[in-house]
Each structure stands twice: as C-alpha cells, then as structure tokens.
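Inputs:
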Amino acid sequence: MTATAPRSTTERAPLPLDVAAVRADFPILGRSVRDGKPLVYLDSGATSQKPRQVLDAERWFYENVNAAPHRGAHALAEEATEAYEAARATIASFIGGQPDEVVFTRNSTEAINLVAYAMSNAVTAKEPEFRRYAVGQGDEVVVTEMEHHANLVPWQQLCERTGATLRWLGLTDDGRLDLSDLDTVVNERTKLVTVTQQSNILGTMPPLQPIIERAHAVGALVMVDGAQSVPHQPVDVAALGADFLVFSGHKMLGPTGVGVLWGRAEVLAALPPFLTGGSMIEVVRMEGSTFAPPPQRFEAGVPMTAQVIGLAAACDYLTALGMENVLAHEEALTEYALAELQAIPGVTVIGPVDTVARGGAISFTVEGIHPHDVGQVLDDQGIAVRVGHHCAWPVVRRYGVPATTRATFYVHTGYDDVDALVEGVRHAQRFFGVDTQVEEAR
Amino acid sequence: MKLQDMYQEIILDHYRNPHGRGLREPFDAEVHHVNPTCGDEVTLRVKVDGDTLTDVSYEGMGCSISQASVSAMYDLVVGRSVQDALATGDDFMKLMQAKGDQAVADELEDSLEDAVAFAGVSKYPARIKCALMSWMALKDASARAWGGPAA
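Outputs:
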C-alpha cells in the first residue's frame, strides 16, 4: 500500500521556534515505534514529553540534595528546603504570581478538588474565619459545557454534598462558549464560577474577562482551569484577575505527579484545609489542631520535591523559548493543519475552524471511519494521537459525535508532523475503502 | 503488515454488514454497557426459552472492532444453550488474553469460528475492551434473564 502524498499547497508561515534544535532536547523523540516507524508525537494535550533539562534537574536533586523539605535541620534538609522553595518562586514567577500563593498538588484535578473540598469543609469548620466561602442550599456553582471532567465532576460532587445547585454556560454550534445568558446564569446566588482557559478537545480559548467581571460583580469567586493554557500561552495571574488558576506540570514539559493551585492570598487564607496531616499544622494537641498559613496549610505530608524541581526546570526551559513564541509557533501550525485537514474530503473539524482565540488542539472526525480506527491506522504509522471523548463527554455529545480523533501540538512539533498526520488520515481512508465512496458522494 | 492482522477481512465484513443488528421483541433482559475510556456503547437484549438463547438483539455505536465483535457473537450464540454461550464467551476471553499467540487461536478455532479472527486484536491492549464489550453485555443480560422473564 504505497501512495505518494499530494504536495501541500497551503502556505507555511516561518515557525518562531527552531524545531530541530528543540527536538534535540527530547530524548524520546529519537525512538521509533511499531516496527521502526519514527515517532510522531501529537498527544501533548494528554501529556507532554520531557526535555533533558527537566530530567537532569530531577536527577540532580536525587543525586545531590535529596531530603524531606521543611523537616529536620541537617545540611541536606536545609538544602532540599531551599531548592524546593526556590522552585516555588520560579514557578510563581512563570505565571506572574507570588510564591506564597502557589500550592503544589498532584495535578490540576487535585488542585480543583482541593478548592471544592475546602468549600464544603468550610460549612462545618470550627474556625469562623474558615466559613467565608461555605456553600449550601440556595447557592449556585457555575461551570461550562466545555469543561474537562476534572473541572466538572468535582463541582457536581460539591453540589451533591452541600445542596448547592450546579449551573452551566452552553456552547455555540461553531465551538465557542455561549455567553448570551451570562447575566442570568451568573447571579447573586453564584458562589463560584469555573471555566477553562483553553478547551482540551475543541481548542477554544473562551473570553474570560466578561466572565470574571460578571462573577466579581455578584461577589463570586472565579477559578480558571489552565491545564491546557499555561503550557501553551503566556499567562499572568495579575492581568487575568481570577481568584484561582490550576495547571499540571506534566502537560508543560514537567514531571508527572506535580500540579499547581495558584490562589489569591486573601482567598487562600480564608479556606480550610483539604488534606490534613504532617507539615500543614501550627499546633497539634490530642484534643485538636490549628493549621499553618498557606501555602503549607494545603501541602500535607512530604511533598513531591524532585518533581517540583523538575517543573521549575520546565518553566525555565519554556521561558528561554519565550511563551509568546510558543503561542505563535502553535498558531502557525494550527492554521496550517486546519487548512490541510479540511482539504481532505470527509474530514470535519469539531471546534473553531479558524485560529481566532484558538489553540493547537484539533479534534476531527473522518466520515465512515470510527475515531478509534483512525487512531489505530495512525498509530501503525508511528503517529500518536488521542481518540475518544477526551474526558469531555458532554462536548462530544453536544456535537453529536461518539468520539473524535485529536491532534495536539507543542514546542517540538513541525510542519513535517502535520504532513504525516494528513497523509495518515488519507491512508486510513484508503485502508477502510472510504476514500472513493466519499469522492463519489460529492 | 500488522494492521491487517487486526483488521481481518472477516472483521471488516461484520462491521460493514452486521448480523442480527436491531432491538427486537420479545426479550427477557436488556442491558446497556459502555466503555468509559472511549465512549463505545451497546444496548443488548436476550430472549431465553428454557435454557436456549432464542434471540440476541442489539444496537450500539463504536469502532469497527466493537461492532464486528457483537455481530460475530450473534452468529455464535443464538440458538445455543445459555451455558454453551457463556462457555464460548470464556473462550473468547482466553483469545483476548493470548497476546497474539497463534497456538491459542488454533486451539480455539472450533469453538469461536469467525470470532477467532479477533486474535490480532489481542496484540493491542487498548483495543481488547472494544472486542470484549458485547460479550460482557451478553454475560450480564443472561444472568438477569436467568432470574426469570421480564414483566
């Protein structure tokens, strides 16, 4: 089954990042898969690959400094604490925040759960100062139909625990957030509004300013899910104006097992703990305990120290590339990929079809071939994409498809990767014999 | 080429022209199974007369593997005793655990007939659940029907 790819006619804007130089930093991109096929990794939206600089930072910590931070007074413990807190400062600076506003969690999912559980723990907190953000019957929590399950299910559960009501903003047919009923959905009963900064399945970047302004006008807190935005665009919490921002290290070239909850200092100060135990306390007696100020209040147990240090190295790596360049790089690839994919008869993009307020996550369907089968043929050619509902089941339901195939781009992605994807999709059509059917139907 | 190992012609035939598809009356039990990692779904009904599976009817959406699997299963189990059908399901499970071992496939060929073509799927751990979904639904529905005809 050999066929020559038709030469692309789409214009290729010069890419801001030096793809060959970046790729040289990622050892895994040198391997092959499925009987010698070079790896084409288009699944950074699920998890990103790691540059050597990040791997080296973790190894440096274990080989030279390893000890439990914030415990003990021996030399290693002091150095480990210093390295851990220096990493916190680097990560805070990456998003324009203060170090004591950065709480380390396992990932974005845990960061969101931390806030959701703190808000229900507030209901029964013995300390009056921790009851400020309690939610209960008559209160409302607002999400959007575009959220990843991680930013939906914890809020459904919070509402079930407390008797609060879950409301949501819907989607438009062209893959955008529908703000037409913003003023009724977000109202005086709203306690918290949570919204993604970039949809993991549609690529959409919803307009956050009107949502944040409306939420604050009615006295509600605002959380921004940055799992898909912080890795791919400049984010500055001061300019953003939200109360919480969450993101995951592993999606931004960092290690697995570390995520971040950034919270406005005065808001974090008024939240009761989620997980309790060692190192988050102030005084412990048999009868009861008092708690440390943030961020320690939310970091029970020995933290993921080496991973935090790896994440700081990832922030340094991205800063050196320049987040404006990362954004522009992915925008150029997205524009090219949207044009090339849509030029294939039978391919439908699910989500915005232009690059306005849109990131480098492209979901699509191929007429006559289930997304799993598309993904399998791509995999056979060494191309890693994600298939399924992408942990955003309501989104695929909204657009009337059982699942999609999704390609996501990052700093090492080049036009050659997109060309491989496009040729792979054409190959899938030939393999399943739908190429001629689609042509004939036209 | 590996891809053809999985997408045997017989599997693609079942996918394009499924056998026994559609939900039919009467039935003794109906179940709905989903594969939560990918969103594949099947609704499956069984009609049991004595200990014979007189009909298995279904509607579903999913990939070629999941849809072909339910079609091949229909051919294998309708008209058989519930015990035989479930024993065949156990054989299919063995095939799915064989990691592409041809000896296992050869051994199960008499029992699984067309469905032995799914042997190639067992080399792809992420797709095994697609092939197994309908068999799990059949097991579930048979157990419910065994409890007595639906009201």
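Remarks. The domain at 19-51+322-431 of chain A is CATH 3.90.1150.10 (Aspartate Aminotransferase, domain 1). Chain A has a mean pLDDT of 96.
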